[in-house]
Amino acid sequence: MIKAAADGIKEVTPPLSDADVASLKAGDRVRISGVLYTARDAAHARLFPLIEQGKPLPIEVRGQIIYYTGPSPARPGAVVGSIGPTTGGRMDKFTPALLELGLKATIGKGARSQAVKDALRRHTAVYFGAIGGAGAVLSQFVKALEVVAYEDLGTEAIRRLEVEGFPAIVVNDCHGGDLYEDGVRAFAREDA
Amino acid sequence: MEANYDLEPDMLRAFDRALTTERSAAGRQVLQTLKDNARMAQTKRMPYCQDTGVVVCFVELGQEVHLTGGGLDEAINEGVRQGYTEGYLRASIVRSPFDRVNTGDNTPAVIHVDVVPGATLRFSLMAKGGGCENRSKYKMLTPADGLEGVKGWILECVRTAGPDACPPLIVGVGVGGTFEKAAILSKKALFRELGSPNPDPAIGAIEREVLERANRLGIGPQGYGGDTTAFGVHILAAPCHITSLPVAVTIECHAHRHKEVTL
């Protein structure tokens, strides 16, 4: 579900429908509340063969959001340690297959491949950016955390997070919009 | 450990300065969030970034110093083990690049030792993030490529790092030496106080020019577009072979965490 708040920021609550995703445009600021699943390199490397063999995954991805992150350990009494995004591009190889299963959004930082951008269009999905390196600030939006798969992977295990008002921005929408390309176009004064 | 909670004052000053010059509203918002993040990390004793890095340790070992009671590498790794475990810092190291099993305590560190005159022992430590390290690059230029070739290659590295490496960046450059020497210099260059130029005025001028040009690329904070793509370009140079012009570029993110200790 998505609705616009009074301050112009879009409130995003998974599960997301095609219509929800289609309403998002590159550059839109969002606040996400509800469930996020964390997965990064090692978890994707385990999910991918399962998808290829048509086996069930340890999490239901349909309509859901995957956050690319590996948090630092929580201090006693805290929900989580620092929890900012990792580079999304490293998951490019695995993302189209997850989108095909109905995953609606991913959160990371950094550019995605053309193949992923094409898959976002094809499957009506979106790539959000969270601020890389702002792991301490982002930790305050995480209200609950539970390891749901691959505990042996440590920080790379799949975790189910409950978040409230988690801030992000639409980097790649399902219409071909790309915040990074728009940003450089608007501000570049020199070609490298 | 402390380096992961407390960003150095030179970095905090760089955020403040950029907030006054950045034209992009989205860019200013990122910079403000990063400033807030630094404050929160400091007060909550929580790492600034969840990627608490690989520990890169440069040791200057005075030749009159005699170490007893165990190996130097062992002592450094024990320090890393204790610091990362007791400090609630993330274990981000795998024991082998092939089987990729996490060592669980962030060891081992990457250690470089130089033997120098004197009776002191100096450690320069950096917690180097992986996302930006992945964007570090090397190119063997030719003498004919010259200074313009070097400048062009550094800018190409910044451009291709783009939003992936968490700009605003600090760009460490090693020019000269050999393949491995240039790479080590590019890391050492990052220890210099941000904004202070290379003592050689000619190299200082190159740093200034490349920084200015990098900030005209438009990438901006987090790649959302803007004028603050890099906070600094630090170059170290070394003599090299008549055939060679090695240039290594270490890309460092705004989570620039380092500490120096002299014993």
Strand and helix map with partners:
The complex is a heterodimer of chains A (192) and B (263).
Chain A: E1 2-4, E2 10-12, H1 18-22, E3 29-38, H2 41-52, E4 65-67, H3 95-100, E5 105-108, H4 114-122, E6 126-129, H5 135-139, E7 142-149, E8 158-172, H6 179-187
Parallel strand pairs in A: 2-3, 3-4, 4-5, 5-6
Antiparallel strand pairs in A: 1-2, 3-8, 6-8, 7-8
Chain B: H1 2-5, H2 9-21, H3 25-44, E1 54-62, H4 72-86, E2 110-116, E3 121-128, H5 130-133, E4 137-141, H6 146-161, E5 169-177, H7 179-188, H8 201-214, E6 230-240, E7 245-252, E8 257-262
Parallel strand pairs in B: 1-2, 5-6
Antiparallel strand pairs in B: 1-3, 3-8, 4-7, 5-7
Helix pairs in contact in B: 2-3, 6-8
Strand tally of chain A is 8
What is the strand tally of chain B?
8
CA(first)-CA(last) distance of chain A: 41 Å
The CATH class designation of chain A is Alpha Beta
**Rg over C-alpha atoms of chain B, rounded to the nearest angstrom:** 19 Å
Descriptors:
heterodimer; A: about 190 residues; alpha/beta; fumarase; five-stranded mixed barrel; about 25% helix; globular; B: about 260 residues; 2 domains; four-stranded mixed beta sheet; 8 strands; about 25% strand
Report on this model:
The complex is a heterodimer of chains A (192) and B (263). Chain A starts with a strand and ends in a 5-residue tail after the last helix. The radius of gyration of chain A is 16 Å and the shape is globular. Chain A is built from six helices and eight strands; from the N terminus they run ββαβαβαβαβαββα. Helices cover 24% and strands 26% of the residues of chain A. Chain A has helices spanning 18-22, 41-52, 95-100, 114-122, 135-139, 179-187, and strands at residues 2-4, 10-12, 29-38, 65-67, 105-108, 126-129, 142-149, 158-172. In chain A, helix 4 links the parallel strand 5 and strand 6. Chain A has a single domain, classed as Fe-S hydro-lyase, tartrate dehydratase beta-type, catalytic domain (fumarase, Alpha-Beta Barrel). In chain A, 48% of the residues are buried. With 192 residues, chain A is α/β, with parallel strands linked by helices. Chain B is an alpha/beta fold. Chain B has eight helices and eight strands, in the order αααβαββαβαβααβββ. A four-stranded mixed β-sheet of chain B has the order 2-1-3-8. The longest helix of chain B is centred in the N-terminal third of the chain and has 20 residues, at 25-44. In chain B, 46% of the residues are buried. Chains A and B meet through helix 5 and helix 6 of A and helix 3 and helix 6 of B.
